[in-house]
Amino acid sequence: MNQFRVAILGVTGAVGQEFITLLEERNFPVSELRPLASAKSAGSKIRFRGQDIVIQEAREDSFKDMDIVLSSAGGSVSKRLVPHAVKAGALVVDNTSAFRMDPEVPLVIPEINPEDIALNKGIIANPNCSTIIMLVPLFPLHRVAKIKRIVVSTYQSASGAGAKAMKELEDQTRDILEGRQPRKEVFPHQIAFNLFSHNSAVDAETGYCEEETKMVKETKKIFHDSEIEVFPTTVRVPVMRAHSESIYVELERALSEDEIRKILGKAEGLQIVDDRKANHFPMPIEASGQDDILVGRIRVNKSRPKEIAMFVSGDQIRKGAALNAVQIAERWAGSAAVKTS
Amino acid sequence: MNQFRVAILGVTGAVGQEFITLLEERNFPVSELRPLASAKSAGSKIRFRGQDIVIQEAREDSFKDMDIVLSSAGGSVSKRLVPHAVKAGALVVDNTSAFRMDPEVPLVIPEINPEDIALNKGIIANPNCSTIIMLVPLFPLHRVAKIKRIVVSTYQSASGAGAKAMKELEDQTRDILEGRQPRKEVFPHQIAFNLFSHNSAVDAETGYCEEETKMVKETKKIFHDSEIEVFPTTVRVPVMRAHSESIYVELERALSEDEIRKILGKAEGLQIVDDRKANHFPMPIEASGQDDILVGRIRVNKSRPKEIAMFVSGDQIRKGAALNAVQIAERWAGSAAVKTS
What we know:
By secondary structure, chain A is an alpha/beta fold. Chain A folds into two domains: about 5-125 and about 320-340, Rossmann fold; about 130-315, Dihydrodipicolinate Reductase, domain 2 (2-Layer Sandwich). Chain A has helices at about 15-25, 75-85, 130-145, 165-175, 210-225, 255-265, 285, 320-340; strands at about 5-10, 30-35, 45-50, 50-55, 55, 70, 90-95, 125, 145-155, 195, 230-235, 235, 240-250, 270, 295-300, 305-315. In chain A, strands 5-2-1-6-7-8 form a six-stranded parallel sheet, with helices on both faces. A six-stranded mixed sheet of chain A has the order 11-9-13-16-15-14. In chain A, helix 1 (about 15-25) packs across helix 8, helix 3 packs parallel to helix 5 (about 210-225) and helix 3 (about 130-145) packs across helix 8. At the A-B interface, strand 9, helix 4, strand 10, strand 11 and strand 13 of A face strand 9, helix 4, strand 10, strand 11 and strand 13 of B.
């Protein structure tokens, strides 16, 4: 089997750390690992397959001889460095929003549009976490009954804002329990024992925040369906690392609850957790650390049989970010291996 | 001004405690206060207007000479004791679900259907907290543009399950921060750093939990509109005492965002918190302890101008329970005072 030289851009972040875990767990054919981060972290070490590897500063010339770059160092770093990685000949799977809407860049969820991987010109974009967690369970239904529109409300974890935000949730919670004033550094509002509209900039005209605009635009691109309507309300909740979403969908043709369960039961990347008797449905603590998106509260609106609801939870760092990117790299590597063998 | 002899049934609970605070704060004309609770709490004291008053055991004969009973001791206690309070001549404002759907019992939110108060035959029911917090901001829009349907996802605080549930959220959080296994007593699932579908029984056939069924049925009754459709998804979040709701509404005629703001700006019982530039919208920590429901994220769906969205937060113990009940009692007392003067 072909081996690949893999660079990780932003290796010290929550997603960067998860890249390491996943490459080990999934036995990705890595012949060389090059961990890259800001100058601040350069010189410290990360552990990979029992070896300590020194983190290098991410610079324009950091990508020489790399086959694959897994990138998650923020949009501005990606914009600056990813073109150099491409020029050096690497395939970049970029986890930021920098290139997602670029018509030259495929935006891929492997369970949905793996065929788009082949269209890449050096960059494949990884979708926004909320988009991935919403679309993995919706696509199998879209394929058989065509989704006309989605109304979605999210319950997004701290991890979506990175490792520092997770620490802030923990610190603030401790401060409050011990009677101290909680300090705000990452989030604009207190996250402990609170919730707030997503902390991305809100468009003064439309009232949508950037997180919501991503869900609208990325869904159209991934589904190759410019007609599909998405109306999202994105909310940050005091949960550590899994996002949940309350999803309401209008289909072109009616599906029964049994049909929905049958379709989702056969689908990749998800698991049905829908026990009405035990009141057991998707929960972030059960989704955390899992590869699968958990799907439950499956209901058909009896007075409008073409409309259905579900509640989902998915690990934001895994399927919402690092896992999806590694799965893209695996598919690409599989086809690259075929070509070169 | 007339004075009233007031009994509080379930005085040791979260809502019972808030009744005391509100009667003091709002200067309710109380000539005698009779605190009632289970045998377990009988004999201990509560403080009211600078005096210690001994809690009595709530029994069938506890209501002699009372004018008003504020009741919040759970549905089964209400079913057993409220009829005796009515027989003893008191007006009962009942905060449980025991009588809400009884056609003989008015179900009242004073900002919406105060005229129903006069129809009482001894009992006035206080609606479910999620229903109140949803309907106070929706009714002013319903009056001018008729709401055809509501799709709502809730973010409900621990307080909705009582004082013990709030304690459980605190204890579990502390356990997790200190590396101990969190204990579950009140909620079926871990609430700290987690969320789950509402902890009321789920109907095996429809898939709705009781909390959702309440929102559907109570909305029709309070609005006197059997046609209005409500599709709720109710979720418990690790927040202490204010519920939030992401509300999507279809109107019979289009309203602009400016019109919505104008209508809501003049409405009673709510406050608009909708600062797109500052990313400042309703949050449970700001709604806690407030009488008003906070309303924001007001958006019209550009591709469907009859459809609008908003995000609301309201104190579950205040307007969601105790305050609404006291406001009902105030309105009733006002008209009773007129009649007797």
